[in-house]
Amino acid sequence: MRYIPIIQFGVGGVGRALIRQVLATAEQQARYGFQFVYTALADSDGAVVATRHEDEGLARALLEDLVEWKAAGKRLAEHPEGYWQGDLAALVDVAGWPGAIVVDVTAAEAETVAPAFQRARDLGYGIVLANKKPLTGDLRLWDLLHAGPLRYESTVGAGLPVISTLRTLLDTGDSVKQVQGALSGTLGFVMSALEAGQSFSAAVREAHRLGYTEPDPRDDLSGMDVARKALILARTLGLPLSMDTLTVEPLYPPDFAALSRDEFWARLDEVDAEMQARVASAAAEGNVLRYVADVSEAGVSVGVQAVPRESPLGALRGTDNLISFTTARYAARPLVVQGAGAGVDVTAAGVLGDMFQLAQVCR
Ligand SMILES: NC(=O)c1ccc[n+]([C@@H]2O[C@H](COP(=O)([O-])OP(=O)(O)OC[C@H]3O[C@@H](n4cnc5c(N)ncnc54)[C@H](OP(=O)(O)O)[C@@H]3O)[C@@H](O)[C@H]2O)c1
User: Fold this and answer.
1) Burial of 288 (0-12, 13-18, 19+ CB in 10 A)
2) Active site positions, annotated
3) Model confidence over 36-65: pLDDT tens digits?
4) Could you report the per-residue pLDDT of 61-90, keeping only the tens digit for each?
5) Which end of the chain is more exposed for a tag (fewer CB within 10 A), N or C?
6) Tally of helices (H runs) and strands (E runs) in the chain
């Protein structure tokens, strides 16, 4: 049996689901002749590290306790086995051995995690990301990450096979003409509600009430999260683009960005009339509005598009994500991937799938 050390940054919703899934899949791991062992867990200011590099790493009972501890909103540093830390690179140094995998399930800024990735690359460790930020910052970090074993399936469409599908298309010599995606469950919900006749402000309020939006809905309506995913798709396609080259349409007027959250909610219905007119003009042509990321060699755009009601994107309803790949081989009808594009369990499963793949390439 090969023991593969896991050094995990982030013990939030996805991080905790991932620990549970790693513990629950010992049998599946054994089938491939390996066992994942946690050697370090870190949150924003603390860590728990396996005291020795024993085969078992952190014990199952301790991991289960840490999952509960974090679910209760406590800090790792305050756990009896925890300590304060602010140096993720040092954690990579002390907690790994050859074949280790560093997993980033934080939403930390690229600069915060970059030194740890540099260390992982120096040591030949694998890297798995659910965090989009390291992949959407400076291209030098993109190149560093790609200089060794790397997977990042969950950054686009959570557990859906989006990046792996794109990789396979490229690796097998297909020519990818266009990738189109509805990549935000929140904005998908809002667009479906508009189609069903609801006003824009009412749709956003309902999405908020159902817990589909971030606490400040502008974080969804700005389109920036979709833009990050579009940039990851573009870079995977081989286009060396940066965030500032993307055309991104926010779903609110520019002056709303500076409003307090209360003022934003109070003025949201000012957007209704224009949105209703766009819905009506699309409907007159047999189209519906969708918030679409459009990626091709011509560039990347992120915003509202009128698409035929019968098209895959037009037929999409609710919070599902949909990604369509138009290629030389899938020319007449695109290859389509669809399903839940958020949620801690599917996201963690995407990360775990990446870990299974790296376990077979990192030695
Ligand atoms: N949730 C989803 O459906 C979904 C889907 C696709 C992708 N993702 C991505 O997955 C990542 C995790 O999402 P989540 O929902 O689990 O977020 P979350 O619940 O907010 O958890 C984030 C975790 O990262 C830790 N963290 C933040 N900064 C850190 C740092 N500098 N060093 C170490 N740890 C740090 C936080 O520490 P504290 O506990 O100390 O705050 C927390 O444990 C995000 O990048 C998100 O965009 C999520």
Assistant:
1) buried
2) 229
3) 999 999 999 999 999 765 567 999 999 999
4) 999 999 999 999 999 999 999 999 999 999
5) N
6) 16, 13
The total number of structural domains in the chain stands at: 2
Is residue 13 part of an annotated ligand binding site?
yes
Note the pLDDT of residue 215: 87
On whether both 94 and 243 belong to a single domain, the answer is no
CATH number at residue 93: 3.40.50.720
Q: Answer whether 200's CB lies under 8 Å from 276's CB.
A: yes
Are both 49 and 186 inside the same structural domain?
no
Cα 16 to middle of ligand 1, angstroms: 10
Q: Both 111 and 207 in a single domain?
A: no
Q: How confident is the model at residue 204 (pLDDT cuts 50, 70, 90)?
A: very high
Rounded CA Rg of the chain: 21
Determine whether the shortest distance from the Cβ of 115 to ligand 1 is under 6 A. Answer: no
Q: What is the distance in A from the centroid of ligand 1 to the CA of 66?
A: 16
Say yes or no: 155 and 263 in one domain: no
176 and 197 share a domain? yes
| 208 and 109 belong to one structural domain | no
Domain hosting residue 200, numbered range: 166-340
Specify whether the CB–CB gap between 215 and 282 falls below 8 A. no
Ligand 1 close to Cβ of residue 153 (< 6 A): no
Q: For ligand 1, atom 15, name the residue with the nearest CA.
A: 13
**Is the distance from the beta carbon of residue 339 to the nearest atom of ligand 1 less than 6 Å?**
no
- 14 belongs to an annotated ligand binding site: yes
